[in-house]
């Protein structure tokens, strides 16, 4: 599988993210012109609480659609690139790295620091940086561009001053600013001129241009100018996590530098780092719902290592490589790699610390606002009296009541997992996962990428029971990823042999009660297999009920009706087999008589689920239809009433979310 960006010029202009499943492994080079037969669709992705919003990412990257290359004899190259474009240079650098330092353990990080390409990053390395809140160092950001351009500014200013006549004709600071600006632009272009590098370049422009034009602006005026320029050039930045974090951190640094100027530089450095770590807690909780307690220590060590060893040696290594000083280049790259090896040992120690990671339920806007206000008041100069108010505001924010599940209440969340199925069932003190979605050939795992982030956003650290309805990949595939992320106390399935020796059959767990909520397995026969052998679970509280059906078809539906009769009646039904026309028989719907039906299906899936005939049948029975392919995650809360929420409607980001 090869993934690439395709800029369409005929028959229309568009930028498309394509995948090509080609066994011949044709090498694609940036700038080549190709003719492809492709299948495309609107940008769409899983929409779940706590999960990565790929649809938003596509929108900000200005992709018009996604798709894949179809097998066709018409797929052919039309024109080779000239090799002069920035993308060609970046690809050439990447290939040079692969040819020369493939054996280095941290080639992925070195590649990311030079050209901003994360495709070679090792998953374990990324997870290490992520768990210690140091990911911002492993990709090109404002820190890297600021350091390089700042170093170039100081270097050329110093060199220019050595020529007295030169310095008399043109101030050294202006010469340094020109070279600093050029280095910032060059590094940003080599890094692909991504949105983070654009922000960093704009900030560098504001600073260096003020020096070139001899404008005596305060640091806060420069900060405001950079902020305004970023918003003017890219108004959509306000929806970017990086925008808020970068400008927020810069503001904190500016404030921190102005404090304790009479103290030792090491004290001031530690003070600024601690200030950044503590003041960003509200934003990190808001955006990610988790963080590292030891991140201040991790960053105090990591920032100097990346700033003064890893990044400069990586850049120097590629320059020496192009100068054909291969032996020296290899040595310089090995120094950069060795710095990362030693740093990773230190970060691994922090990662393994028992209480390093903290989880926080996604906080509300009101809580975030109160926390930010309290921090701003605390940072006000000569505000010792006001700090009592800041402390009170912070306490009030943190003591905001969390919407907890009560006795006899149950929340069933049908996650948006595309063409597959996964429900998370939560009672007051227990958690059940019914099916785990798919695992794909690419390695993408629903259990890891969708279910785990959702559970962690609700501060779930273990799962009481996992039910795998049957053995199809779109129901069982994500179990491995889920089990690696969170401990599971018990697993039941219609195919226990496909899972592990500790799994038992669904029929062995006939019924149980959690916090006043009754769970009952309905298909107690051993005569069915495949889709019809799916575990079927009915969940009831004092007032309402829901049936989770897996992929049962008409044969199993008839068996359930004959076995349970009117006891099948439920308020909410999970559409059997994703709304396939082989399920949801008239007899079954009449017996269950649901008010709502929830369909879990993929956007424009190849099976055309749910079938139009089934949708018409639901409507004929007066059943309200809910579908994850348009609604995203669907949450059904059963207490005295039935409350249903749709993730897309809650987010209301219609400007990039399209659904028919």
Give the proportion of residues in helices. 40-55%
> Compute the gyration radius: what is it?
29 Å
Which whole number gives the mean pLDDT?
86
Number of strand elements: 23
Structural class label: alpha/beta
Low-confidence stretches: none
| Percent of sequence in beta strands | 5-15%
Q: End-to-end distance, in Å?
A: 29 Å
Number of domains: 4
Number of helices: 25
Shape: globular
Strand order of the largest sheet: 14-13-12-11-10-9-22-23
Please describe the biggest sheet, giving its number of strands, its sense, and whether it closes into a barrel.
8 strands, mixed
Description:
- This protein folds into 4 domains: 2-81, no CATH class; 91-359, no CATH class; 365-398; 410-650, Metallo-beta-lactamase, Chain A (4-Layer Sandwich).
- The chain is 46% helix and 15% strand.
- The two termini are 29 Å apart.
- Strand 15 and strand 16 form a beta hairpin.
- It contains 25 helices and 23 strands.
- The chain is globular.
- The protein is of the alpha/beta class.
- The strands form 5 sheets. Strands 14-13-12-11-10-9-22-23 form an 8-stranded mixed β-sheet. Strands 15-16-17-18-19-20-21 form a 7-stranded mixed β-sheet.
Question: Which features does this protein show?
Answer:
seven-stranded mixed sheet; alpha/beta; single chain; globular; eight-stranded mixed sheet
């Amino acid at each position: 599988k090869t993934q690439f960006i395709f800029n369409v010029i005929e028959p229309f202009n568009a930028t498309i993210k394509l995948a090509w499943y080609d066994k011949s492994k044709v090498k694609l080079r940036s700038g080549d012109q190709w003719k492809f037969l492709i299948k495309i669709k609107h940008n769409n992705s899983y929409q779940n609480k706590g999960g990565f919003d790929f649809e938003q990412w596509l929108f900000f990257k200005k992709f018009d659609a996604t798709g894949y290359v179809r097998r066709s004899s018409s797929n052919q190259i039309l024109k080779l690139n000239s090799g002069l474009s920035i993308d060609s240079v970046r690809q050439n650098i990447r290939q040079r790295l692969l040819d020369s330092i493939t054996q280095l353990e941290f080639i992925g990080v070195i590649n990311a620091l030079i050209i901003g390409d994360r495709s070679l990053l090792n998953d374990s390395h990324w997870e290490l940086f992520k768990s210690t809140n140091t990911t911002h160092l492993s990709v090109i950001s404002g820190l890297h561009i600021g350091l390089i351009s700042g170093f170039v500014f100081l270097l050329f200013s110093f060199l220019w001053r050595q020529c007295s006549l030169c310095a008399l004709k043109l101030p050294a600071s202006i010469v340094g600013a020109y070279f600093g600006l050029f280095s910032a632009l060059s590094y940003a272009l080599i890094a692909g001129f991504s949105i983070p590098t654009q922000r960093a370049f704009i900030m560098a422009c504001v600073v260096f241009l003020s020096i070139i034009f001899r404008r005596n602006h305060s640091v806060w005026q420069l900060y405001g100018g950079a902020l305004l320029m970023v918003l003017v050039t890219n108004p959509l930045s306000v929806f970017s996590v990086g925008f808020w974090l970068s400008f927020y951190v810069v503001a904190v640094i500016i404030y921190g530098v102005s404090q304790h100027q009479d103290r030792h530089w090491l004290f001031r450095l530690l003070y600024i780092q601690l200030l950044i770590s503590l003041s960003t807690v509200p934003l990190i909780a808001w955006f990610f719902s988790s963080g590292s307690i030891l991140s201040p220590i991790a960053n105090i060590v990591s920032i100097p290592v990346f700033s003064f060893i890893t990044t400069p040696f990586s850049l120097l290594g590629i320059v020496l490589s192009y100068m054909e000083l291969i032996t020296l280049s290899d040595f310089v790259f090995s120094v950069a790699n060795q710095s990362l090896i030693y740093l990773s040992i230190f970060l691994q120690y922090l990662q393994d610390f028992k209480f390093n990671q903290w989880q926080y339920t996604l906080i509300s806007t009101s809580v975030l606002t109160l926390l930010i206000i309290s921090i701003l008041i605390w940072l006000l100069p000569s505000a010792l009296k006001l700090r009592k108010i800041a402390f009170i505001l912070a306490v009030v924010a943190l003591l905001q009541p969390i919407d907890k599940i009560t006795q006899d209440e149950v929340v069933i969340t049908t996650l948006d997992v595309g063409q597959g199925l996964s429900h998370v069932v939560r009672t007051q003190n227990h958690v059940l996962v019914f099916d785990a979605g798919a695992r794909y050939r690419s390695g993408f795992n629903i259990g890891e990428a969708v279910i785990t982030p959702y559970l962690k956003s609700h501060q779930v650290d273990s799962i009481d029971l996992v039910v795998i309805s049957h053995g199809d990949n779109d129901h069982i595939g994500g179990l491995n990823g889920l089990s690696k992320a969170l401990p599971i106390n018990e697993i039941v399935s219609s195919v226990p042999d496909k899972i592990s020796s500790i799994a038992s059959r669904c029929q062995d767990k006939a019924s149980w009660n959690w916090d006043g909520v009754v769970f009952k397995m309905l298909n107690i026969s051993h005569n069915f297999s495949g889709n019809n052998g799916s575990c079927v679970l009915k969940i009831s509280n004092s007032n309402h009920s829901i049936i989770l059906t897996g992929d049962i078809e008409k044969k199993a539906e008839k068996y359930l009706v004959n076995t349970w009769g009117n006891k099948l009646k439920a308020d909410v039904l999970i559409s059997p087999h994703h709304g396939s026309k082989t399920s949801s028989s008239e007899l079954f719907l009449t017996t269950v008589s649901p008010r709502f039906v929830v369909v879990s299906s993929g956007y424009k899936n190849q099976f055309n689920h749910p079938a139009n005939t089934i949708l018409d049948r639901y409507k004929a029975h007066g059943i309200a239809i809910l579908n994850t392919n348009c609604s995203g995650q669907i949450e059904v809360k059963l207490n005295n009433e039935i409350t249903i929420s749709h993730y897309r409607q809650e987010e209301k980001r219609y400007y990039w979310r399209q659904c028919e």
